[in-house]
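Technical note accompanying the year-one report. For the benefit of new consortium partners, we illustrate the data format agreed upon in the data management plan: each record pairs a sequence with a structure-token string. No post-processing was applied to the example shown here.
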Amino acid sequence: MKYKLLGNTGLKVSELCLGTMTFGGRGTWTAIGSLPQDAANELIKIAVDAGINFIDTANVYSFGLSEQLTGKAIRDLGLKRYDLVIATKVRGMMGEGPNDTGLSRKHIMQQVDESLQRLQTDYIDLYQIHGFDPLTPMEETLETLDMLVKSGKVRYIGCSNLAAWQIMKALGISAQNHLSKFVSLQAYYTIAGRDLEREIVPMLLDQKIGLLVWSPLAGGFLSGKYTRQNADKEGRRANYDFPPIDKEKAYDIIDVMQPIASSKGVSVAQVALAWLLHQPVVTSVILGAKKPEQLKDNLNSVNIDFTEDEIQQLDAVSRLKPEYPGWMIDRQMTDRKI
């Protein structure tokens, strides 16, 4: 397992992160997973034994149950809190009241205390806003997050599912007001969905913000279960067709990945994960699993190397179609390359 710095910080996180969205199972979250405590304990032990020090959850996952199971698993396994980097999130609806959602000062301060209690910890290493809140001024959200860092309840702050302009606006507000800055973005990125590369990836590299990848297998579509001959007949996609992807293009990508996987004696899922690990912008790839064998297979992705020809094949079949202003920027840069 390799470890990378989280954005422009001195904090090292494993290149693979264990996601806990499959823990618990309440309401609509049962479509993702409904693992009980013993299964959560087993997955966390496998991950930590493999060198993972990074665990990601969210208050909204199974409405707090995922955090609760994660915290108890850490205690049950006797893991040292300092050895782990625990990340969670705030923004989603946690009740029926008018202030039970969003990024207001009231909601954030209520939710951070509840997350700390469920996780059975005194501090959160990475506290992330789970999306954009159009009703709360960005200044209010950032000032509140800064208060949490200064209080010691939170070590670093990050964001998730924001547009490039929203992140830049937040960074500008933080710089102008001497507030804690977002050090990471958690976002959807996969070889079957490279939209992030249009605006967000260049911004992340320029601003030295870490990228944490969610749904690296495109909601299980790249798990190896799905081909043109076996389309959406089983697995998570059969019951929860998310995130949206261009399936015909994804099948083309799978057609290229399959012989590469066969030649290396690995799974298609490992090839998809390894491709992400070879992208310079990626800090950590979040793995979600329901079964130990699934997690163990995913963990082996760190051992895969590609030839230059294989990288070119994967890029050619998955690259984005040129869009303006990207194609114009590329054209104008030809005389300014080092």
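Partners are asked to follow this layout when depositing records. The first helix runs from residue 37 to 49.
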